[in-house]
Amino acid sequence: MTDDRSPAREDEPGGGGCPAGAFSRRSFLRGSVAAGLAGAAAGRLRESDAAFAETTAGGRGGAGAIAFHGVHQAGILTPPQPVGTFIAFDVAAAGRRELTDLFRLLTARVRFLTAGGLPPTAPPGSPPSDNSILGHVVVPDALTVTVAVGASLFDSRYGLGVRKPAQLVTMQPFQHDALDPTLSQGDVLVQICANHRDTTVHTLLDLLAHTKGVLNPRWRMECQRNPPRPVGTPRDWFGFKDGITQPDTTSAGQMNQLVWVQPHTAEPAWAAGGTYQAARIIHFDIDAWQALPVARQERIFGRRKASGAPMYAVSETAPDTLDPIYTNDPQGLITPLNSHIRLANPQTPQTAATSTILRRSYDYDRSPDVAGGLDLGHIFCCFQRELNTYITMQNRLEGEALVPFINPRGGGFFFALPGVRDDQDYYARGLLA
Ligand code: HEM
Q1: How far, in Å, is the centroid of ligand 1 from the Cα of 89?
Q2: Average pLDDT for residues 339-365, to the nearest whole number?
Q3: What ligand 1 atom has the least distance to the C-alpha of 241?
Q4: Range with the lowest mean pLDDT among 29-33, 242-246, 262-266, 345-349?
Q5: Given a cut of 60, is residue 429 above it in pLDDT?
Q6: Measured in angstroms, how far is the CA atom of residue 284 from the centroid of ligand 1?
Q7: How far is Cα 378 from Cα 80, in angstroms, rounded to an integer?
């Protein structure tokens, strides 16, 4: 997929004196960027390269494409597609310059993959430029690729410490967490979502091939969103409709208030338009859950299992944000005090500022686990303008009745970068400038 034989850029140091790994990484990146970007400038466009340039221009793409260019990244307000991959990486870029090359390369690949089109024709005798998993012409398939950075990227390696988003921290274990280091943290998180699994696999293989040696996979979760059963919000593996109460993603005002980092705040200027992402790998104890009567399960969530309605209503969409509801139920006789929804959003003036996040979670099945048991769960994913909103909410949930049925095992906190605005822009440009 990448042309290692592309001519070296003359303004970069050559291989002499470099460790072999570093040299091959650099030439790898050079080749990729050259193939995707500089190739056009050098007038080496083949017919298929012209099509490539055309499909990526404007980042809009063909039918079924979700626009790539914008003030914000796609894959955040985008209604969740049925298939998702979350992959976290350690970055092995040799310095700030190679890190910049990496983000430029990622941008070029994602700009193409999300738009779709004809991959460039490889020179005779060279490996093909695309694996053809999606056929001769790459289809957009509602693909979104959302790139986020972890606190560790701001350590001493790249001199970015002073530019770290104000609230970005390495996720520490909450009270009931048993974090597996091999499933936790990461310098970069890439969230890949699409309508079909072949599209996310195609995207993953493409990104891995182009960034080999510089982006080293740390953990990965393959997941899905279930279809509505029978209608409304999809159900998670506990059989409950999950994702009903959400902020209004069509309201720019609400999104600016709740999701997007705003300019002229305590955050660094480059971060405006980005958002904090929490991704938590949470194993479900399905056997224990299925041993509970439904009435007990409903009291644990504070919602009806069949309809998804709050305990005091009949409809899934019944508003549960009416203050009188909990005011009239101070003892939790209808909606238990330690139920999931009541602790997530207690609907009190004291908790109003820490009760709304944008959830965009997926379900995973990695069964059997090493012991031959079930490993089903949730990659709980949410976006919020302040990471502290999530942390405060999660701390409240450490007291919930659901605790015995879930095991948080990994994930991390990240900052989803602002959007790539146009053909000249690239991921993290403001951060790296
Ligand atoms: C094991 C993982 C989890 C499961 C199975 C789960 C499931 C559910 C379900 C079934 C609902 C009710 C329906 C709905 O409004 O979506 C709900 C609501 C909610 N959950 Fe979770 N959830 C999980 C983890 C979390 C976490 C980690 C947070 C945040 C820290 C969270 C925050 C919320 C919020 C804010 C609501 C809406 C509350 C409201 O305003 O009514 N959930 N969740």
Answers
A1: 27
A2: 96
A3: 10
A4: 29-33
A5: yes
A6: 14
A7: 14
CA of 344 to the centre of ligand 1 (A): 7
The yes-or-no verdict on residue 33 having pLDDT over 50 is no
203 contacts 197 by C-beta, under 8 angstroms: no
CA dist 55 and 237 (Å) reads: 39
Cα–Cα distance for residue pair 182/188, rounded to 1 Å: 15
Q: Is the pLDDT of residue 22 over 50?
A: no
Q: Around Cβ 256, how many Cβ atoms within 10 Å?
A: 12
Over 70: is that where the pLDDT of 43 sits? no
Banded pLDDT at 12 (limits 50, 70, 90): very low
| Residue 380 amino acid letter | F
Task: Compute the average pLDDT of residues 190-209.
Answer: 98
Residue 424, class by beta-carbon neighbours within 10 Å (0-12 exposed, 13-18 middle, 19+ buried)?
A: exposed
Q: Is the CB of residue 190 less than 8 Å from the CB of residue 89?
A: yes
- Alpha carbon nearest to ligand 1 atom 25, residue: 380
Q: Which atom of ligand 1 is nearest to the CA of 236?
A: 5
Using the mean position of ligand 1's atoms as its centre, give its distance from the Cα of residue 397 in Å.
10
Total Cβ atoms within 10 A of residue 344: 21
Atom of ligand 1 at shortest distance to CA of 245? 15
Q: Is the dihedral of CA 20, 26, 29, 33 positive or negative?
A: negative
Q: How many CA atoms lie within 13 A of 323 on its CB side?
A: 5
pLDDT at 315: 83
326 pLDDT tier (thresholds 50, 70, 90)? confident
Q: At residue 149, does pLDDT exceed 60?
A: yes
In this structure, what token pair is assigned to residue 242?
Answer: 């999950």
Q: Are 271 and 165 in contact (CB under 8 A)?
A: yes
Q: Is 178 left (phi over 0), alpha (psi -120 to 50) or beta?
A: beta
Residue 320 identity (one-letter amino acid): D
With a Cβ cut-off of 6 Å, ligand 1 is lined by 236, 238, 240-245, 280, 282, 301, 303, 320, 340-341, 344-345, 357, 378, 380, 390, 393-394, 397, 406
**Residue 84 alpha carbon to ligand 1 centre in Å:** 19
217 C-alpha vs ligand 1 centroid, how far in Å? 29
For the segment 170-194, the average pLDDT, to the nearest whole number, is 98
Ligand 1 atom nearest to 396, measured from its CA: 30
Please name the residue whose Cα sits nearest to atom 31 of ligand 1: 344
Would you say 282 and 378 are in contact if contact means Cβ atoms under 8 Å apart?
yes
pTM greater than the 0.85 cutoff: yes
